[in-house]
Each structure stands twice: as C-alpha cells, then as structure tokens.
Amino acid sequence: MKVLVVNIGSTSFKYRLYDMPSETLLARGGVERIGEEASRSYVLLDGKTIERIAPVPDHGSALAACIEQLTDPTSGCLSNAEEISAIGFKAVHAGDVSGAPIVDDHVLDAMDKYSIVAPAHNPPYIRAMRQLRERFSSIPLVAAFETGFHQTAPEANRTYAIPYEWTEKLGIRRYGFHGASHRFIAQRLAEITGRQDLRVVSCHLGGSSSLCAISAGKSLGATMGMSPQSGLPNNNRAGDFDPFALPLIARETGLDLTGILDRLASDGGLKGVSGVGADLRDVETAADAGNKRAQLAIDLFVASIRDYLGSFIIRLGGIDAIVFTGGIGENSSRIRLAVCQGLDELGILLDGGKNANPKGEVVISADESRVAIWVMPTNEEIVVARQTVEALESRTSS
Are residues 92 and 199 in the same domain? Predict the structure, then answer.
C-alpha cells in the first residue's frame, strides 16, 4: 500500500511517499513558491534530487506536478497515480472533530469553523484538500489532526475556568497540538526501552514549541491550549498572554483586535523580545555578543519550559524520561543544559560531554541520573502514514 503524506504551507507542498505497512520511505519532495512563475518542484529518489522550475498555480497543481515526477518513466518510482492508496495530511484543528477521519464536507466545515484560531494553518489545508478532492476524486484523503493525541487528557486538564456555556456551546478548551510528534516520541521510546509504563515529558522545541506529559503512552495534556499560538513562547508567537492587556494595547497603539493578534502571532516570541529575529541560532549569537535583549529572550524561553516541566512532573506523579526533539530540541545544547540545570535533587542530571554534540537517538543524561534524558529526532510523517492506513482499514471493516 502506497501512502502519500502531505505537509502544507501557504505557498509550499511537501510530501513523503511510504510503502506500508513496511514503512519504507520511497521518495520525498515537494513544491516551493506555489503561485509564482518560478515554482520549484523537486523529488529525492535513490539519493538523487530531480527538480523542475515551472509555474504551479495552486496546491492541486502541486500534487499533479509531484505525481508527474513520481511516475516519470525514466526516474520515477510509481507507474501511475492509482498506485497511491491514500493521501494523509498532518492537519491541525477542527475542534471536536479529531483523530484521523476521512476528509469529507463535514470535516472541511469543521476545519473552516476553527480557522479563526488557526489562521496560519487551516486555510491552506482547506484549500488544498478541496482542490485535491476535485482533481483526484478516486484517492481518499485522511486528516490526521494534531489534536488527536491529546484526547486522552483528563477533563480537568482540558477545561478553562471560563463561563461553562462557552466550553459546551463554543468548544473553548485546551486541545493541545504537535500531536504527531509527541505520539511518535511516546511510541518510539516504548520500543527502545521495552517499557509501556513510562512517565515522560516530551519537549518538542523548534520554530513552534510545546511540551507534553505522557503516561504509559497516553497524553495527559500539553502546553498549547485552544490554539497553536498559546503555551511556550515560539519563534515569533507570544505564547501564553494575559487577555486583559488587550484593551490597554488597543488604547495606546490604536490597533484593533485583529491587528493586535496579528502582531502577537508574527512579532512576538523570540523575535519580539530579542529584536534580533525568530531563529534561535541568531538569538544565541547575539546573546554571546552581549545583546541583553537576546539573552532575555533565551532566559524567558527556558523559564517557560522549566515551569511547564515542573508542572508536568507533578501531573505525572514523577518522571522516568525527558525527551528533547524538534529543531531546537535536537540541536541546541545550550537550551538543553539550561532546562536541566540545577535539577539534581529531582534525579535529573545532564552529562555535559554527551550533551555537547549528540547524533540521532541518544541518551545524554549522566550515568547516575535517575531520569533518562534523551535527544530523539521525531518523525511526524510516519505517524500520519500509520494513522492513514488505520483510517482506510477502519472504513473497509465498517
């Protein structure tokens, strides 16, 4: 069974093609600069990159361009598009519609309803899904929602202290995101250790960051709440923020609500505090050069991670492992050191040498550490591929 896993941006289309259930990666590629004259379609097959520069007007055309490369008689790995059994999407938010359903009008309408709280994510996915349903009607689409993994969180961990009718009628609650990444960490750590009972805090740190408390492979909740804008400070998103500051900002700046939210979502986080940029590597360089605001951005990022880490240890009733993943989690020894520093009494001891330059899946805790500290590359795409297969099998059995 061939499954195409798709990750969509406003002007990009990235994919991986898997042969399931062996989980063999057959190809990966995508299209950049969709809607421009110089769109770049590329595919990596057998270690070779094949690319083409030509206009790609929309996401439906992007998939067509990718399939054309995958079915090229001289260099492709498919004979025709019918070999693709399904397309799985790393979808974000549709409220109470979660898990990994087959995409239909009900799913699309639910995603559209929640576009207001996921404006950078839902609209391009909805457009792409509608285009693909029209162009490739014979290929089922599956939306593997980021919120799905967190449905096991207790109600108390998912409910805001707001007028309860807003929770019941409007669906205002803590949903949690980065579900594919946290699910992968839970599954992979159980595979490696042979233990199904682990208490884990998964730290997905990157351009978008979140922590998740995992007990015996199930989520007890994550740092992101109603929207992907909340929780930890992100590269350019503010994270947790007191809504009662909004009237003051509006009065003093002249911005309306939409304008304020746009700034919080684009000029907040590391970028907003440091004044340097959204990339942590640039912020770290500036901090090393004596930039106090850059150092402040790093310090508050670490402080937020540690606050949630402590909270999640209590929620879990103890901890067996901390896992760092994502671009920052895997590559910033500085952040890992700062997060774990001074936690010896909790049984969390980092090994400085192991932390310096870890590669792949590796333990970086000291030998005497009671808590295992891991660096582990995530694989969200394979999780989506597995969920897509499950969705197809469920539909067939029913």
Answer: no
Q: How far apart are CA 103 and CA 59, in angstroms?
A: 16
Q: Are 113 and 143 in contact (CB under 8 A)?
A: no
Buried b (16+ CB within 10 A) or exposed e, 202-214: bbbbbbbbbbbbb
Other C-beta atoms closer than 10 Å to the C-beta of 365 total: 21
In a domain, 181, yes or no: no
Burial class (CB within 10 angstroms; exposed 0-12, middle 13-18, buried 19+) of 142: buried
Please give the pLDDT value at position 395: 82
Q: What is the CATH number of the domain that holds 8?
A: 3.30.420.40
In which domain, by residue range, is 98 found?
A: 2-145
Pull the structure tokens for residue 51: 């690319």
Domain-embedded: residue 177: no
- Residue 398: predicted pLDDT: 61
Residues 376 and 266 in one domain: yes
Q: Is residue 167 part of a domain?
A: no
pLDDT for residue 196? 97
Number of domains in the chain: 2
Entry pTM: 0.93
Q: Does the pLDDT at position 208 exceed 80? A: yes
- Among 125-134, 305-314, 334-343, 375-384, the minimum mean pLDDT is found in 125-134
Number of C-beta neighbours around residue 262 at 10 A: 13
13 and 128, same structural domain? yes
- List the one residue out of 221, 371, 195, 246 whose CA is nearest residue 311: 221
The amino acid occupying position 351 is: D
Question: Are residues 6 and 69 part of one domain?
Answer: yes
How far apart, in whole angstroms, are the C-alpha atoms of residue 138 and residue 80?
Answer: 13
